[in-house]
Amino acid sequence: MTVAARAVLSTSNLVQPDRAAVMRHARNAYAGAPVVQGLEARLAAFHGAAHCVALCNGFWALALAMRALAVPDRSDVLMPSLTYRRMADVAAWAGLRPRFCEVDPATLACSAATMRAALAPGVGLLLAVHPIVNTCDVPGLVALAQETGLPLLFDSVESAFEAVAAGKVGSFGAAECFSLHASKLLNGYEGGYVTTQDPALAAHLAALRDGTADDGLDLRLNRFHAAMALAGLDDMQAQVRRNQARYALYRTLLAGLPRLRLVPFDDRHACSFKNILVELLPAWPMGRGATLARLNARGILARAYYDPPLHRKTMAYPHIPAHLPATDALAARFMLLPCGHHVADADIRAVVRALAELAA
């Protein structure tokens, strides 16, 4: 079975909101309506945050938040190694030195325990990253920040819809960062934003974004990108229902492959069901690299989950070397399967058939 070239199956979301809604918001933008400010207001309300600052992309949302929050005269930002491939680069752009911690094998995310084990006197910022499926240890990390007096920044780009028992993601820590890239839940073509409860931090981030502070960079969100994101917000609940249906079909079909485990969504609280993450169990008949190569050859663009981890990458800037055996083991076992707007039920069945053939 080979997927037709026109139907190459990707792990990117690539959601397309209703065209009429996109054009309605775009016409407002063209007419000069304050669509960026409108988007910020809606996102703040959506996340239960007092403030939202929109930027040109998620990279700069993270970099400016790191720069604004890090304790002066402390050089290190503590982060998990099993995360976004450019996270250490973002820290370097912010003038900080990456220091890495392990993740909890049950969640694939940092926790209060893994961060506490890696704390050192030079740490001036805790960067907690939500995993691709579910959330990290929000209450534990908030308590750790209070205990240590260190600012806590969440990278929440993969958890924009998620909630925990204490509330909606986007309302915790000193600030939380999100992306409006086409691969994310909310597609603004490109863009990013920061949510916070702190009015002084929001004003400082806005000044950094607008070029009225520091190095004068203009990092404002394009108003037509804001229009696209507004249309995505209009469609958000419907998108999550579509994602849930795709996830449910994967869950049903993958139950017949005992050598492979679907990482389940914790639906006790709100979740987006956007990503499909599987673990290759020890009985799987080949390595992950060979599995991915064979799937990719069939037009199924499955990909490794955060591999190599950051502490294994070559970096041309200051960083703290780390020995992270749990992360090394986890980085070799997980992969993402096709999902998103362009993946139909027939495609999911084809993906699972291909996996069954490889498992035979």
Please, could you describe this protein's structure?
- Strands 1-9-8-5-4-2-3 form a seven-stranded mixed sheet, sandwiched between helices. The chain has a four-stranded antiparallel sheet with strand order 10-11-13-12, with helices on one face. A two-stranded antiparallel ribbon has the order 6-7.
- It is of the alpha/beta class.
- The longest helix is centred in the C-terminal third of the chain and has 19 residues.
- α1 packs antiparallel against α8, α3 crosses α7 and α5 packs parallel to α6.
- It contains twelve helices and 13 strands.
- It starts with 18 loop residues before the first helix and ends with a helix.
- β4, α6 and β5 form a beta-alpha-beta unit.
- The model has no long low-confidence stretch (mean pLDDT 95).
Coarse morphology: globular
Name the helix and strand elements from N-terminus to C-terminus, one letter apiece.
Answer: HHEHEHEHEHEEEEEHHHEEHEHEH
Strand residue content = 15-25%
Oligomeric state of this protein: single chain
What is the strand tally?
A: 13
Low-confidence blocks of residues: none
Q: SS-based structural class?
A: alpha/beta
Largest beta sheet: what is the strand line-up? 1-9-8-5-4-2-3
Number of helices: 12
Q: Could you tell me how far the N terminus lies from the C terminus, measured between alpha carbons in angstroms?
A: 15 Å
The Cα radius of gyration reads: 20 Å
Helix content: 25-40%
Largest beta sheet, briefly? Answer: 7 strands, mixed
Mean pLDDT: 95
